[in-house]
Amino acid sequence: MAGPGSLTARSIAAARQVLAGRRSGLAAHLAFVGPAVVASIAYVDPGNFATNIQAGAKYGYDLLWVVLAANLIAMLFQALSAKLGIVTGRNLAEMCRDEFPPAVVWAMWIVSELAAMATDLAEFLGGAIGLSLLLHLPVFVGMAVTACITYGILMFERTGFRPIELIVGALVGVIALCYLIEMFIAPVDWGAAAFHAVVPQLADAEALLLAVGIIGATVMPHAVYLHSALTQARTPVRSEAETRQVLRFSNQEVVVALAVAGLVNMAMVMMASSAFHAGHRDVAEIETAYHTLTPLLGEAAAGLFLLSLIASGISSSTVGTMAGQMIMQGFVGFRIPIVVRRLVTMAPAFVVVALGVNTTRALVISQVVLSIALPLPMVALLMFTRRPDVMGAFANSWATNMAALLGTAVVLALNAFLILQTFGVSIPGLP
Question: Assign residue 21 a region: left if phi > 0, alpha if psi is -120 to 50, beta otherwise?
Fold first, then answer.
């Protein structure tokens, strides 16, 4: 099976024509589109559905600022991850293995594997819940169907990575289209949405938990690792000028792909707020949201919600499996068969269902786990991309370093508040 980001000779030739100045316009951009689109599915996975539904239902538009801030942080770190792969030809996990002491490498790998399992819990459960609601199947059967579909998609990588990019891109388009239509169905208060998108506030400790969950569901560790792997050998560059060209295309793709993902996330919160906040603030489960949407907004809105959830679960589960394989190979230097990888990462989802755990609550907690694991790749990425001995002329500027430090500080601060809250320490300003 080809490695992440591997393209056919035809795709590479198209990119070379762009770099040589023989192709321009939209065709030039399309030759480089792919990595950010694939990474963007991590930002609209079922974990986002769970946290955004709870945020909108309980707090209305109040937490939209968290979604916006998380998306801006995501744009920056995905761009840095892509840059690392393009400039060095190595991915973030490989860089960690080469630059850090063995004890640190093993610790980072273990934490990353736990994060991958938490990721797959959200993705796999989301797809299974969607299929079970749509087709009236037991969740276990929905999980089996989701596993088969994702495995089938992964098999397309044998012929190069472009088919995977096209499939994932199409599924991202389905999710975006569903929520675009939802915005015409739901009675959104656009003024309140605009206000709360830029005015920070946290009503109570539960809002803090959801804020951390939103960060964890938006800026995801496996996406930070994966993006560098998708760009490291995609289009071999032969000069500094070519590197600058590829970086420009990469940054443009990151902005567009993650802007779409961010708007979808904000649409999820707005839909939940407009549908549930006034009279159904206790809606906290995906299943309840679906059944409540039908009488409130009609069967079309509920159907679109399920369709987007299924597309999200299948595509993000596919990408999550690839990311887990890449993380293992980068940190410890070996691969395992994709079937085994699929079984290992989806095992927690089966355990959750077998134990009768509330699935939506499990999704939210999984996102909190991701947020706690997130600072490791963020700090490592910042360390590498700021070093001239690693990045040469493409080391981060002072402004980029400051922005990345601020983003990391926000994540660390939210995590610190969450830990204090967990141990019963009162937090000033939060009742």
Answer: left
Q: Identify whether 382 is part of a domain.
A: yes
* Of residues 330, 338, 351, the one with CA closest to residue 124: 351
Q: Which domain holds residue 164?
A: 33-422
CATH number of the domain within which 109 lies: 1.20.1740.10
**Is the residue at 404 inside a domain?**
yes
Does position 198 have pLDDT exceeding 60, yes or no?
Answer: yes
Residues counted in the chain: 431
The span from the CA of 106 to the CA of 363, in Å, is 27
| pLDDT at residue 295 greater than cutoff 70 | yes
One-letter-per-residue 3-state SS of 162-193: HHHHHHHHHHHHHHHHHHHHHHHHCCCCHHHH
CA 46 from centre of chain = 10
Kindly state whether residue 9 falls inside one of the protein's structural domains.
no
Q: The whole model's pTM is what?
A: 0.85
The pLDDT of residue 1 is: 42
Question: For the chain, how many structural domains are there in total?
Answer: 1
Separation CA 274–CA 251 (nearest Å): 34
**Looking at the predicted structure, is the pLDDT value of residue 358 above 50?**
yes
Confirm whether 244 is domain-assigned: yes
Secondary structure class of 399 (helix, strand, coil): helix
Please write the tens of the pLDDT for every residue from 217-246. 677 788 889 899 888 877 777 788 888 888
Plot region of 298 (φ>0 → left; ψ -120 to 50 → alpha; else → beta): left
